[in-house]
Structure formats: structure tokens, C-alpha cells
Design brief:
By secondary structure, the protein is of the alpha/beta class. It contains seven helices and 14 strands. The longest helix has 14 residues. The N and C termini lie far apart (about 35 Å).
């Protein structure tokens, strides 16, 4: 296929908890297996962001101290660029800490960390235990309901604004806040989720769907016997 996926990894040295960098690796592999070009660049503290230079923007999760620094920098240097990229249909995938920063703010320990406002949501570190464990959700990214399996570990509780669409319905696990039965957020091609795993190696179909959305193409299936086995293992771990 005569196409190239241009990926921008946001704060890769700071937001890479639970091997979230594996999500980039699976995107690269699935492009290469199809003869699709793959270009990876990064934007970190102090860097600007060109909204037209990339097809997919990715950010993983991080430790609280790193996330605080990232939140302030994103609001100052990348907010406008991310909005323009999302408006033109670029894919934005944010996991855990990155997901929390898609919204208006993350309130933790009396401090309010700014978000970039790509999705109408807010996150609060409430009293109570961390929400930890295997998680599975049912999501529909335009090709019918599918199961996404992963691992969640978050102290923050995320609440979607009225009318905002979750990524999926919780089948097993806690989800956004352990109360409303929803997980993640999905607006246009902007997707946020608490699911690590890493996410995309456990859900190869999701990696392919993100490629399709980013490139505006329909992909031919790959022989995913090993990936399907990993997905089934993740589903069983989640009790499905």
C-alpha cells in the first residue's frame, strides 16, 4: 500500500508507565507487515506541535510528578495544536495519565492540573482505594461491537460531561470511576482510555482500526492467530 503513517509520540520519556511504548511498537509492526510506511517523531517539554504534520498522536501514562510537569507543558505549548489536529480528523490516542489530561482538569491533592479540553471530562483523586485489575469493555469504533481487554491501575476517578460518549461499556473491572459502568472517552477520532496491557498488542483489531481512521483506508486482514490468542488470554484474565 502506497501510504505512510506519521506518528507523534507525546512525552515518550515521561509518559511510558507499564510499557505503554509497546503501543507504538505494534503500530509500526502492523504497518510494516502491510508495506505501509511508518514515521515516528516526538514532542516533549517545551516543544511546539505542528497539527498538520502527523496522522496519529499518542501519549501513555506516567508517574504523578511527571504527569504534573506534562500537564502544565501541554496546556502551554500543545493545546491549540492538538485541537487543530483533532478538528481535521487526526487520531489522538491517550492512555491513563494521558487520558486524564484530555479533559478540563485533574484535581489531585488540592492541586488542579490543567487539561487540554479535547473531551468534556474531569478527573478527581477521591478518597478510596486505587482501581486496579484486569478490565474488559465493549466498544464500537464504527465496525460493530468488539471487546477491548487490558489492565487498569488508577487513583483518579474520571467523569464524563453530559452527552459525552464513553469509549465503551464495562464488562469486567472498574472503568472510569467504578460507579457508572463506563470506560474511556471517544469523540471523533480522539480516544482516551485507562487500559494498559499494553493496550494495542492485546487488541490487534484496535490497532488496525486506528490505522484505518488515521490513514482513511480499509485494511486487508492479517494472519492474527498469535494476536488473537493473546486477546483471548486477556479476556480470560478479565473473567470473560
Amino acid at each position: 500500500m502506497d501510504a505512510t503513517l506519521r506518528v507523534c509520540s507525546l512525552y515518550p520519556e515521561l509518559m511510558n508507565i507499564y510499557a505503554d511504548r509497546g503501543n507504538i511498537a505494534i503500530l509500526r509492526a502492523r504497518c510494516e507487515w502491510r508495506g505501509i510506511g511508518f514515521e515516528l517523531s516526538s514532542a516533549s517539554l517545551g516543544d511546539g506541535l505542528d497539527p498538520g504534520a502527523h496522522d496519529l498522536f499518542y501519549m501513555g501514562g506516567g508517574q504523578d510528578r511527571d504527569q504534573a510537569a506534562v500537564a502544565l507543558d501541554m496546556a502551554a505549548t500543545k493545546r491549540d495544536g492538538l485541537h487543530r489536529a483533532a478538528d481535521r480528523g487526526a487520531v489522538v490516542l491517550a492512555v491513563c495519565g494521558g487520558y486524564q489530561l484530555l479533559g478540563s482538569a485533574y484535581v489531585v491533592g488540592g492541586e488542579e492540573l490543567p487539561g487540554v479540553g479535547l473531551v468534556d471530562l474531569g478527573t478527581v483523586r477521591e478518597p478510596g482505594p486505587r482501581l486496579i485489575g484486569n478490565c474488559a469493555i465493549e466498544a464500537d469504533l464504527g465496525t460493530g461491537p468488539r471487546v477491548i481487554a487490558g489492565f487498569e491501575n488508577h487513583g483518579g476517578r474520571t467523569y464524563l460531561g453530559e452527552g459525552e460518549r464513553p469509549l465503551g461499556r464495562v464488562l469486567r473491572g472498574h472503568g472510569n470511576n467504578g460507579k457508572d459502568g463506563f470506560e474511556g472517552a471517544h469523540r471523533g477520532n480522539v480516544i482516551g482510555t485507562y487500559l494498559h496491557g499494553p493496550l494495542l498488542p492485546k487488541n490487534a483489531w484496535l490497532a488496525d482500526r486506528l490505522l484505518e481512521l488515521a490513514l482513511g483506508v480499509e485494511l486487508t486482514p492479517l494472519d492474527d492467530a498469535m494476536e488473537d490468542a493473546a486477546h483471548e488470554s486477556a479476556r480470560r484474565a478479565a473473567g470473560l
